[in-house]
Structure formats: structure tokens, C-alpha cells
Amino acid sequence: xxxxxxxxxxxxxxxxxxxxxxxxxxxxxxxxxxxxxxxxxxxxxxxxxxxxxxxxxxxxxxxxxxxxxxxxxxxxxxxxxxxxxxxxxxxxxxxxxxxxxxxxxxxxxxxxxxxxxxxxxxxxxxxxxxxxxxxxxxxxxxxxxxxxxxxxxxxxxxxxxxxxxxxxxxxxxxxxxxxxxxxxxxxxxxxxxxxxxxxxxxxxxxxxxxxxxxxxxxxxxxxxxxxxxxxxxxxxxxxxxxxxxxxxxxxxxxxxxxxxxxxxxxxxxxxxxxxxxxxxxxxxxxxxxxxxxxxxxxxxxxxxxxxxxxxxxxxxxxxxxxxxxxxxxxxxxxxxxxxxxxxxxxxxxxxxxxxxxxxxxxxxxxxxxxxxxxxxxxxxxxxxxxxxxxxxxxx
Length: 395
Fold this sequence. Notes:
This protein has helices at 7-11, 16-29, 48-59, 72-86, 101-112, 128-135, 155-161, 184-194, 254-265, 273-284, 291-309, 345-356, 380-394; strands at 35-36, 95-98, 118-122, 139-143, 166-172, 201-205, 230-235, 248-251, 324-325, 335-337, 340-342, 358-359, 361-362, 372-375. The protein is an alpha/beta fold. The chain has two domains: 7-45 and 290-394, Aspartate Aminotransferase, domain 1 (Alpha-Beta Complex); 48-285, Aspartate Aminotransferase, domain 2. β10 and β11 form a beta hairpin. α5 (101-112) runs parallel beside α6, α7 (155-161) runs parallel beside α8 and α11 (291-309) runs parallel beside α13 (380-394).
């Protein structure tokens, strides 16, 4: 990197998921037939009722700057959604709308962390958590899990990781990349630890909330003794297939929301006016309207797990949500495949791209060096072809 750039950007890692997506696009532009299983982007179109709301907003001449923290009626729709889906009660001053859940998370790290503050990250975790914390001066501290524990952190491991410097814990449920879902009982055990440390703030990333295959969704904020210390992050990218519309939001303590509003006012200001109007309609409709997508993801999960089971060397759990599998591929480490030495998950992921023309993401980017992430947010025909290629490349 150029020495004239800041230390923070020189030390910042490139998003592994976006880097692999860019590499996939580059190969496709060269005429190479690559199947992309790297991005977490649903292949469904945006629901018609959401598109119609956006068209209506254009016809109604929504075009001006928006309030930094979101339109008032959108915030009310978010409040109604929180009450309906999560039994959480908020007022408008506790809600901030941002340009995607990624900005919501970045706002939170910037307003909550000081230099040297520690952030607990149950691993595996979403790729951007660690670097967002570093940019804000924080120190990411991983808490290891394993496929044997369904990639979920235990209360004992959580308590052992806490130090006087611990300021935040960030986790996602359903989890990106593992698809694991914390049950109410499991979250309660974690909460029982955290209540002993009242200065620790919890950031609960719930962007995959509705892509749940039957285990049920619980938010840490539902516990009375954690409500005032928990910030819930959500958005419309995954459940409504609105990735490019860039709408995320938080619900949390008013003092934190106020700080996020202040931060956002100096960085991006308010989010896109048309997307906000469409999001009102998306959230006002019941989750049953998008159940067809969830059902399709569940079928794809069954398919990809079956196909992976037929390939020697992949060790998988059964993800209860999201649209990823996170297989342990350490079986291949130390082996030579078609003249290429495989020593890490990154080596293995690159091998699949070069030899099978299938794009995945190394688990090293998610805090687990033994795994790779495979997205099944694509058609069954693509999944079948991708696994056929992988099997052939490994046989």
C-alpha cells in the first residue's frame, strides 16, 4: 500500500467476501464459467408489493434529503415490526435507519469504542466485525467454537474471555457464516454471565432473523435484565432480497441511538428516500409473505448437505438458519491436489476457484481457519452443478 495512505486503511483487511465476488466477476467477464457461491445474496426478485411502493414513492415526488435517522413513519413501521416479531418495545428516539446493517454496525463501533477497548467475537463471525472494531480503536478478541458445539459459544467460554477491558460483544443469530441459531435457553445462559458485568454492551446482529428453519428466533434484548444494554441490528437485505437497496436499522438504548445519529450526520446523512418508502411497506406486511423464500432456502439446505455428504473430506453441521454451510475442510490440509499444495482453508478455496470454477470464501476471514463458507442463496440447478464440479476436482 502507498505510504501516503493512513495507517488505519493500510492495516485494514479487504472484505474476503467482496474480494471473492470481484474475482468471480472478473473471471466471468473473461468468458470463464464460474459458479459464485461466495456472496450472501438471495437470488429471488424483490417482492412485487415492495417494488410497487418504490414506484409510488417516485410518483409521489420523494426526492429530497431525508432525516438523518430515517423518516418518522419508517421508524414507526420498525417499532411495529419489533413489537410484532420480537416482543420488543421501542420509541422513535431509539431507532436509527442507516445505509445497510453494515453501516449500523460501523456506527456502533465508532460511537462505543475507545482506543484499547476489547470486543468479544464468538468465532466464526461475520468478516467485517473485526476490522470495523480495529478502525474504531478497539481490539477484537475471538472466542473459539467448533463444529462439534454447532459453532456456538458457551457461557463458560464467554466468562473466561471477559477482562476489565471488555466493552462489547458482537454476535449474529442466525449466524453468518455458520447458520447456527442460539436458542432462548442458550442466550439466557450467556445473559446470566453478562449481567455480572454491567458495563459490557451487547450488539445482536439479527439480519437473518426470518431465514430460520424452525428453531425459532430469540433476541438478547427480550430479557428484561439485558434490554438496556443490548442493541439489535437488522435490515431488509436478506429476508426481502433487497441487498442493493441499502436499508439497515438499529433498536437500542436512546443514548446509543442518539450517538449513532450524530455520527451518521457527519458521514452519510440520511438514507435513500425511495428505498425508505419501500421499506415501510416491506415491514408492514407480515413475515408470512416471504415464507416462500424461507421454504426454498430450507430445501436448498437439504440438497447441498446431501451433496456435500457424498464428497469425501467435508465435515458439516446442520445449520438452522441463514443460507450458508460452513464445512470443516481440514481433511485436505497437507495434501497435494493436481500438483497444488493445500495447507490452509485459503489454499483450498483458491483451488476450488481455479480447478472447479466454484467460488467460496475461506473460513480464515471469519475467524475459523479450518472451514470454508458456501452460500446456497442460488438455484438448485447451480448448487447441483457446483457440487458436481467440486466432487470432480477433489476426486
